[in-house]
Every structure is written in C-alpha cells, then in structure tokens.
Amino acid sequence: MFTNISWTDYLITIAVLSVIYYTIVILLYYTAELKQALTQKEQAYSLNNDSGNSHMDIPENTEVNEPSLFGDDDNFNEVEQLITALKSVIADAAGIKPEEKNFRHNLSLTLQQYPSIKKSPLRSSINELVASECTKLGTLTLSEEEVEMLW
C-alpha cells in the first residue's frame, strides 16, 4: 500500500500540510497582533506619502512603533508635545495679534525647545503644519521655508 508513494510526493504533502497547519495556528492565536502590525504599516505609509494634505494630523491615542519614522516612544511623545505647543502659540497669537517679530521669536523659541526633532524626518511636516495653522487662524502668513529658518 505504501510502496506506491514516492519520497517526493511524501515530502510535498508534508510541506503543504505544515503550511496549512501553521497558517491556521497564526490566524487563531495571533490575529490581533497581525491587525496591529498592518495598521501601523498603513499609518506610517500614509504619513510618509501625505503630501496632498495642507497639514499633518497625528491622531490621539495612536501607537506607532515604526523605528525609522519616530525612533522610539520618547521621540513620538516629543513630536506630540511640540505640535500641541506650536498650536497653542499660534492660537494665542491669533487672539492678540502680536508684532511679526515677536510672533516669529515665540515660534523659534518653541521649536528650539525640541532639538531632537530638528533632525527628524517629520521636520518638513511640522513646518507644513505651522504654515497651515498660521494661515488657517489668520495670525501671520508664513511659508514652509520661513518656518524652516526658525529652527
């Protein structure tokens, strides 16, 4: 009965059954981790290719563990803090309409408080965010190049 099965047929059958078995095990026990990993890659991809938007929105309560994009959690937290601080400075300036020199100085001081982000790949997105927030709130019209000089 077993003499009609060659070793090649036996090994191919074992390989196919092993792939099916491990696929089922992975799907049963690691579904949540797979979804999380896919979601993080999609978010990182959309952040890298998000040149069409007028500013960068980083959703709150989003975990991104992409080392090449943010480095570690501390850098990601710093980026969030910087964005919050910049929005606050711009919103405050919109209420009181300061002189252009003072406003630029305040933005520069805020940006200089985060030296680790100065070399981050997100720097251009932060520049774009500042320019769009200034335009949106009507404080002062700044281009991305002007914001770049404030670093």
Write the layout of secondary structure elements.
Layout: H1 7-29, H2 31-48, H3 67-70, H4 73-96, H5 100-112, H6 115-118, H7 123-137, H8 144-150
List keywords for this structure.
single chain, about 150 residues, mainly alpha, about 0% strand
How would you describe this protein?
This protein has helices at residues 7-29, 31-48, 67-70, 73-96, 100-112, 115-118, 123-137, 144-150. With 151 residues, it is mainly alpha-helical. The longest helix has 24 residues, at 73-96. Helix content is 72%, strand content 0%. The protein has 8 helices and no strands. It has one domain. It is rod-shaped and about 90 Å long.
Could you give the distance between the termini? 79 Å
Q: What percent strand?
A: under 5%
Mean model confidence by pLDDT: 76
Q: Could you state the order of secondary-structure elements as H and E? A: HHHHHHHH
Biggest β-sheet, characterized? none
Number of domains: 1
Specify the number of helices: 8
SS class: mainly alpha
